[in-house]
UniProtKB/TrEMBL annotation:
This is Iron complex outermembrane receptor protein. The lineage of its organism: Bacteria, Pseudomonadati, Pseudomonadota, Gammaproteobacteria, Oceanospirillales. It comes from Marinomonas communis. Gene3D superfamilies: TonB-dependent receptor, beta-barrel domain, TonB-dependent receptor, plug domain. PANTHER family: BLL4766 PROTEIN, TONB-DEPENDENT OUTER MEMBRANE RECEPTOR. Keywords: Cell outer membrane, Membrane, Receptor, TonB box, Transmembrane, Transmembrane beta strand, Transport. Residues 52-157 form the TonB-dependent receptor plug domain.
Length: 660
């Protein structure tokens, strides 16, 4: 597979070279449109032309995001090659995985919002439903696919998702949006942006309700669904030499969770639920010391507090077994079974960008992060982790048309020790709008606190159950090899990217650790199993934007996974393809469609199609748009998991937006 796909890219490269013989050669196009060169910031942490990037990158633009009618940030990632997205245990806990390797937790991808990491180090995951982030506020999403963004550290194992929000200058005025469908899902959003002297600001808020799945695979009803509320304030000061940004956000999540299916435990009329509060503040300062040197300083604080409550009736026999009590076996006891987890993070980072000439750029950064967790359930108290990082990224034009890129991240954890993540890439520019690239990189995913320090038990009426303990695991390791081709054709509004990769993973730890299984294993939570895998594949994406407003985005990903682990193979989706089309009918009406197909997404095929019409009316004072459409599931399977079953495979939806 790797050789075949590599040959395909080399064939495409040869086609580009031969194309120079034609009248509309690449050189001619470049001379016509020298200024229309897309720039990205994620791989090297500083803006650079995408054609000079040595890693595989996807960019979801603001125009695509707003036309896609996607309501939640994580769902946008379904339009990045190799990703699959969907609810797993509950409607609020979504799988957002790249190249598989996991289902129940989101463990091996770094996620940033304006440079602020939202990845949890306590119980490795990204709580998408608790982010104080609205999809309408996003300017673009850059996804560095693969472990080759070494400057982001050990959690950048399979990919880095960098979410960049819009400047308040781009959203001046007010905006109100509302959508609902016939399955009980609805969402409302509002924002106001303003400008005063050198300051600009935006205040936004939203509330979304998801009804969730209807029933389990055995026909029993689901306790699924959630409501999330969030608010965000962004303030930006900017003058000729410096920029200051202040980002403040808070969110609240009310969610239904699944019943515990344990013999001797019943719920009566009660249903289990989860409450989660989250807040953050981030301050960033950027100073241009000279035309060739820029300094950036950033600090952020993030706090998350969640409680899951099960009001249950329990036979004394269960309490005797799990809580080491001496009670009558047949007696029933009522009370609250509680799980709690509080997380706090402080992170400070300084970055230097030095560009002495057009052929050389050096980006250095250093950071200190402190993570504190408190949980009676998972840790029987609190623990503080400290992480120190230093990174360097060098971009050097050795000679035209070859550009070298080298990166190195050094990090030291109080808990797990020191790790080094190197990356080396080379770009051969075919023109100012096309290049081929090669990259080799190595990265680690350090164990989370649950892997290393867990003392897991449940609390029932203030009494802790018999604890299970983590014994520690080695860091997971990946070595990746990539080859790719990127080509932008501005005169046609067309760009495409092709890539092949070979990833070698070792010491992969199981994410599905369970309290009950650990009890049976003598109280040891850490699994003795560690998985090895080799993943090879081919990925492609295409964007086309015509002069009359047509927008098309298509993706394709094929993956071959070689491993002896059955559990790991079940998490792999060997083939995923998506297509989005937005077609203006006239100045006011557009027809839109999206299609997604995933083969064997956790053993189930998944396929759906959406169609909707949008009508837009504009006056001097306001712009109003409204839409009506429907979605149909083309498969007849549960989604990802046997208990994710919807009775109605078709849904109708409407939305309306007012800007003034």
């Amino acid at each position: 597979m790797f050789r075949f796909a590599t040959g395909a890219i080399l064939f495409a490269y040869a086609g580009l070279i031969s194309a120079e013989e034609y009248e509309f050669s690449l050189a001619a196009l470049d001379n016509m449109l020298q200024d229309d060169i897309p720039a990205v910031v994620t791989p090297a942490r500083v803006a650079q032309p995408r054609v000079e990037v040595s890693s595989t990158l996807s960019v979801l633009s603001g125009e695509f995001i707003r036309r896609s009618n996607v309501q939640y940030v994580e769902d946008l990632l379904a339009y990045v090659p190799g990703f699959f997205v969907g609810p797993y245990w509950n409607s609020y806990r979504k799988v957002v995985a790249y190249h598989g390797t996991e289902l129940d937790r989101f463990r091996r991808i770094q996620v940033l919002v304006n440079g602020r990491s939202v990845y949890s180090s306590a119980y490795a995951r990204v709580d998408w439903s608790s982010l104080a982030l609205n999809v309408e506020d996003i300017e673009r999403i850059e996804v560095n696919r693969g472990p080759n963004a070494s400057s982001y550290g050990s959690n950048s194992f399979l990919a880095v998702v960098n979410i960049i929000t819009r400047s308040p200058m781009d959203t001046l005025g007010s905006n109100i949006f509302y959508t609902n469908d016939d399955q009980g899902n609805r969402r409302v959003y509002g924002q106001h942006s303003g400008l005063k002297d050198n300051w600009s600001y935006r205040v936004s808020a939203s509330q979304g309700t998801i009804d969730g799945y209807d029933r389990k695979g055995d026909g029993d009803p689901r306790n699924d669904g959630h409501t999330q509320r969030s608010g965000n304030m962004l303030f930006i000061y900017q003058d000729e030499s410096q920029k200051l940004d202040i980002d403040i956000g808070a969110s609240h999540l009310d969610a239904d969770v699944e019943f515990y299916e344990i013999t001797g435990v019943s719920y009566g009329e009660s249903t289990p639920y989860l409450d989660q509060d989250r807040e953050h503040i981030k301050v960033g300062w950027e100073l241009d010391q000279s035309p060739s040197h820029t300094v950036k300083l950033q600090y952020y604080y993030d706090r998350s507090q969640q409680t899951e409550v099960h009001n249950i009736d329990v036979y004394g026999q269960v309490l005797n077994l799990l809580f080491a009590q001496n009670l009558p076996n047949a007696q029933i006891y009522s009370g609250e079974l509680v799980s709690d987890l509080d997380e706090y993070r402080h992170d400070i980072e300084v970055q230097s960008i030095w560009t002495p000439n057009q052929d050389l750029r050096l980006v250095n950064s250093a950071s200190y992060r402190q993570d504190n967790v408190y949980s009676k359930t998972y840790f029987n108290g609190d623990y503080t982790e400290e992480l120190v990082r230093a990174s360097s990224n060098l971009n050097y034009r050795a000679w035209d048309p070859i550009i070298l890129n080298a990166g190195l991240m050094l990090e030291h954890s109080k808990l797990t020790g020191s790790y080094t993540s190197p990356q080396l890439g080379v770009v051969y520019k075919l023109s100012e709008q096309a290049s081929v690239r090669a990259n080799v990189s190595q990265a680690y995913r350090t164990p989370d606190l649950l892997d290393e320090k867990a003392e897991w038990s449940y609390v029932f009426n203030g009494i802790r159950s018999t604890p299970v303990y983590a014994t520690g695991i080695p860091a997971e390791k990946i070595t990746s090899y990539e080859l790719g081709l990127y080509h932008n054709i501005p005169v046609l509004g067309l760009s495409y990217d092709l890539s092949v990769y070979s990833e070698h993973l070792s010491n992969l730890s199981a994410s599905g650790k369970k309290y009950a299984d650990a009890l049976e294993d003598g109280g040891i939570l850490t699994s003795n199993e560690s998985y090895q895998a080799t993943i090879e594949g081919f990925e492609a994406e295409l964007d086309w934007r015509s002069q009359n407003g047509v927008l098309v985005r298509g993706t394709f990903a094929y993956q071959d996974t070689d491993t002896e682990s059955r559990k790991l193979k079940e998490t792999v989706t060997p083939l995923i393809t998506t297509l989005f089309v937005s077609l203006p009918v006239n100045d006011r009406i557009s027809l839109n469609s999206r299609y997604i197909y995933g083969k064997e997404m956790a053993t189930y095929d998944h396929e759906f199609l959406s169609l909707w019409l949008t009508h837009r009316a504009t006056t001097e004072d306001f712009t109003f748009s409204a839409g009506l459409g429907g979605t149909v599931r083309l498969d007849n399977n549960p989604y990802i998991r046997v208990n994710n079953v919807s009775d109605d495979k078709t849904s109708l939806f409407m939305f309306a937006n007012l800007s003034f």
